[in-house]
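Quick one:
INPUT:
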């Protein structure tokens, strides 16, 4: 099973549980990488070593009702008074000369619970005086977790539980102050503990294939003295303040499709009172009467949009092209052309980018992850504009179901909300345009 499919299964599963009430909406806690939330106290700081599961750690913590934020290695200086720290997995080997590292003394200085996942555990083992053995053989798939004792990190657990492995290197020599707290069915250590509140696990508790992963994360967080909660009302207010701070008096062009992401973004910009021009592009790939429906919905919400008929340009540019990746890049670059041709003097571009777009494109400038596919809002021109500080993406670290919850909190009419939630963009077609 590839990483892209695994992530899609996780996202769909969470959405189903949220809609069915299995996970209360109040526990679908949100986080966003904005200047407002740079240094909140008592958050769960997740340090990104490049695993494409890393964002799932953040959302699992949010499901448990606590504020979590993902930090690139270059941004560790932003961490201040965390409640707990998690070191994610990653695709690299700790034996590589330029392997991602961490200042261990700095890490310990916070005196908070620390959990190393996969690569994170191997790194902690090295930092505490142990060693890691490289291997050409990769373990990928389910494995048995057998705790030494059903207490601490493994309280309220089964004597044997399935977990999900994805690694090649493994811990070898252990430091004197390290103890094994769980093994696999072959007796190999897969979970370690140093002192009272530093733990390592070789598996990924964040994926549903680890059947009791949620319990393990809950047990880990119980070691924290204080953790910051978060609610949707606070999120909306802080997000609007952050938009105002970033945009100021600049003119922003916001592309809208009628889908939930760009609709929520347009309403947020409208409520923030910034100078925004919302552009709806008819690219020739829309459903019947979709343009009229989108125009009517935005009119009801009191948000003015401008419609640009660029169908001929899109169909001509896509004619005969069969490669999905090339088509995504053509579409993304052409959207920018159309926006700027329509507006001309805009100083910033606002996009309804969500975290799956970022992780699949591996397009965050600081990302350690591998590319799954490129999204239309993650093409080279957009990345260049990001470097120039001309792009604002307030939703870029949220999942779809979390944006839906935000939409509901913004009092968008139920019938409009129902319509936009069921709409998926029609333009990234797989078949060639002829």
């Amino acid at each position: 099973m590839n990483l892209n499919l695994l992530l899609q299964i996780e996202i769909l599963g969470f959405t189903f549980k949220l809609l069915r009430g299995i996970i209360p909406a109040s526990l679908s806690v949100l986080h966003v990488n904005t200047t407002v939330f740079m240094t909140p106290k008592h958050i769960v700081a997740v340090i990104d070593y490049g695993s494409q599961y890393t964002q799932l750690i953040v959302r699992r913590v949010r499901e448990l009702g606590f504020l979590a934020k993902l930090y690139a290695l270059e941004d560790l200086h932003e961490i201040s008074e965390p409640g707990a720290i998690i070191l994610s997995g990653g695709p690299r080997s700790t034996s590589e000369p330029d392997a991602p590292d961490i200042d261990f003394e700095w890490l310990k200085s916070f005196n908070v619970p620390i959990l190393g996942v996969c690569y994170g555990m191997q790194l902690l083992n090295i930092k505490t005086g142990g060693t890691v053995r490289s291997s050409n053989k990769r373990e990928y798939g389910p494995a048995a977790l057998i705790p030494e004792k059903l207490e601490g990190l493994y309280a309220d657990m089964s004597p044997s539980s399935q977990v999900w492995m994805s690694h090649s290197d493994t811990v070898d020599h252990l430091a004197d102050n390290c103890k094994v707290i769980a093994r696999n069915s072959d007796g190999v250590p897969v979970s370690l503990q140093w002192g009272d509140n530093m733990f390592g696990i070789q598996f990924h508790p964040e994926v549903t294939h680890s059947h009791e992963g949620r319990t393990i994360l809950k047990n880990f967080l119980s070691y924290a003295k204080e953790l910051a909660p978060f609610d949707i009302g606070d999120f909306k207010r802080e997000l609007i303040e952050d938009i105002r701070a970033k945009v100021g008096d600049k003119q922003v062009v916001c592309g809208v499709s009628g889908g939930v992401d760009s609709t929520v973004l347009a309403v947020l910009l409208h409520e923030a009172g910034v100078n925004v021009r919302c552009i709806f592009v008819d690219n020739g790939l829309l459903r019947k009467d979709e343009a009229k429906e989108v125009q009517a919905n935005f009119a009801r919400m009191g948000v003015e949009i401008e419609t640009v008929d660029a169908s001929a340009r899109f169909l001509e540019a896509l004619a005969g092209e069969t490669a999905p990746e090339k088509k995504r890049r053509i579409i993304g670059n052409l959207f920018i052309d159309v926006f700027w041709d329509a507006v001309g003097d805009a100083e910033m571009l606002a996009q309804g980018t969500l975290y799956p777009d970022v992780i699949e494109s591996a397009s965050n400038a600081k990302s350690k992850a591998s590319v799954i596919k490129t999204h239309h809002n993650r093409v080279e021109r957009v990345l260049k504009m990001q470097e120039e500080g001309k792009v604002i993406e307030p939703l870029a670290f949220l999942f779809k179901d979390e944006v839906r919850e935000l939409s509901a909190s913004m009092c968008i009419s139920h019938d409009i909300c129902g319509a936009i939630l069921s709409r998926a963009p029609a333009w990234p077609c797989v078949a060639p345009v002829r």
